[in-house]
Amino acid sequence: MAFGISRSEMKAWKESVARGEIAFLTHYWVDPRFPEMKTVTKVGCSDLGKLAEWCRDNGLNPKYIHRRDEYPHFDLLGPKQREILRRENMHSQLERFRLL
Protein backbone atom coordinates (compact mmCIF):
# COMPACT_ATOMS: atom_id res chain seq x y z
CA MET A 1 0.00 0.00 0.00
CA ALA A 2 1.37 3.42 -1.00
CA PHE A 3 1.30 6.47 1.28
CA GLY A 4 2.70 9.98 1.18
CA ILE A 5 2.18 10.84 -2.49
CA SER A 6 -0.48 12.81 -4.28
CA ARG A 7 -2.71 11.67 -7.11
CA SER A 8 -0.95 14.12 -9.40
CA GLU A 9 2.44 12.56 -8.58
CA MET A 10 1.10 9.10 -9.30
CA LYS A 11 -0.52 10.31 -12.52
CA ALA A 12 2.71 11.98 -13.68
CA TRP A 13 4.68 8.78 -12.98
CA LYS A 14 2.18 6.65 -14.90
CA GLU A 15 2.27 9.04 -17.85
CA SER A 16 6.08 8.94 -17.94
CA VAL A 17 6.09 5.15 -17.73
CA ALA A 18 3.51 4.90 -20.52
CA ARG A 19 5.70 7.14 -22.74
CA GLY A 20 8.57 4.68 -22.34
CA GLU A 21 10.63 6.89 -20.04
CA ILE A 22 12.53 5.65 -17.00
CA ALA A 23 10.46 7.17 -14.19
CA PHE A 24 10.97 7.20 -10.42
CA LEU A 25 8.30 7.30 -7.74
CA THR A 26 9.17 7.05 -4.05
CA HIS A 27 6.49 6.57 -1.42
CA TYR A 28 5.94 5.26 2.07
CA TRP A 29 5.07 1.61 2.04
CA VAL A 30 3.82 -1.16 4.31
CA ASP A 31 4.44 -4.76 3.33
CA PRO A 32 4.54 -7.59 5.89
CA ARG A 33 7.22 -9.36 3.83
CA PHE A 34 9.61 -6.46 4.49
CA PRO A 35 8.72 -5.14 7.97
CA GLU A 36 11.96 -3.14 8.28
CA MET A 37 11.35 -1.20 5.05
CA LYS A 38 9.29 1.98 5.28
CA THR A 39 9.74 3.31 1.73
CA VAL A 40 10.07 1.97 -1.79
CA THR A 41 11.06 3.62 -5.05
CA LYS A 42 9.33 2.26 -8.12
CA VAL A 43 11.46 2.60 -11.25
CA GLY A 44 9.06 2.16 -14.14
CA CYS A 45 9.16 2.04 -17.93
CA SER A 46 6.72 0.52 -20.43
CA ASP A 47 9.66 -0.41 -22.66
CA LEU A 48 10.69 -3.67 -20.96
CA GLY A 49 13.97 -3.85 -22.87
CA LYS A 50 14.92 -0.37 -21.72
CA LEU A 51 13.92 -1.13 -18.12
CA ALA A 52 15.88 -4.41 -18.14
CA GLU A 53 18.94 -2.57 -19.47
CA TRP A 54 18.56 0.07 -16.73
CA CYS A 55 18.45 -2.72 -14.15
CA ARG A 56 21.61 -4.37 -15.49
CA ASP A 57 23.40 -1.00 -15.67
CA ASN A 58 22.63 -0.54 -11.97
CA GLY A 59 23.62 -4.02 -10.84
CA LEU A 60 20.04 -5.23 -10.48
CA ASN A 61 18.52 -8.44 -11.78
CA PRO A 62 15.80 -7.70 -14.37
CA LYS A 63 14.16 -10.97 -13.34
CA TYR A 64 12.54 -8.98 -10.51
CA ILE A 65 10.76 -6.49 -12.76
CA HIS A 66 7.06 -6.47 -11.87
CA ARG A 67 5.19 -7.12 -15.12
CA ARG A 68 1.75 -7.83 -13.70
CA ASP A 69 0.17 -4.52 -14.64
CA GLU A 70 0.33 -1.92 -17.39
CA TYR A 71 3.11 -0.07 -15.55
CA PRO A 72 6.13 -2.38 -15.41
CA HIS A 73 8.50 -1.41 -12.62
CA PHE A 74 11.38 -2.49 -10.43
CA ASP A 75 11.11 -1.93 -6.67
CA LEU A 76 14.15 -0.34 -5.04
CA LEU A 77 14.54 -0.90 -1.30
CA GLY A 78 17.09 -0.18 1.41
CA PRO A 79 20.69 0.82 0.69
CA LYS A 80 20.34 0.28 -3.08
CA GLN A 81 17.36 2.65 -3.09
CA ARG A 82 19.43 5.39 -1.43
CA GLU A 83 22.43 4.71 -3.66
CA ILE A 84 20.45 5.00 -6.88
CA LEU A 85 18.41 8.03 -5.78
CA ARG A 86 21.71 9.79 -4.99
CA ARG A 87 23.21 8.80 -8.34
CA GLU A 88 20.07 10.03 -10.15
CA ASN A 89 20.22 13.36 -8.24
CA MET A 90 16.82 12.78 -6.66
CA HIS A 91 17.74 14.73 -3.53
CA SER A 92 14.19 15.96 -2.96
CA GLN A 93 12.95 12.36 -2.65
CA LEU A 94 15.85 11.47 -0.34
CA GLU A 95 14.99 14.41 1.92
CA ARG A 96 11.21 14.14 1.72
CA PHE A 97 11.20 10.46 2.71
CA ARG A 98 14.04 10.82 5.25
CA LEU A 99 16.39 8.50 3.40
CA LEU A 100 19.59 10.50 4.06
UniProtKB/TrEMBL annotation:
Domain of life according to the entry: Bacteria
Descriptive protein name: YneQ
Phylogenetic lineage: Bacteria, Bacillati, Bacillota, Bacilli, Bacillales
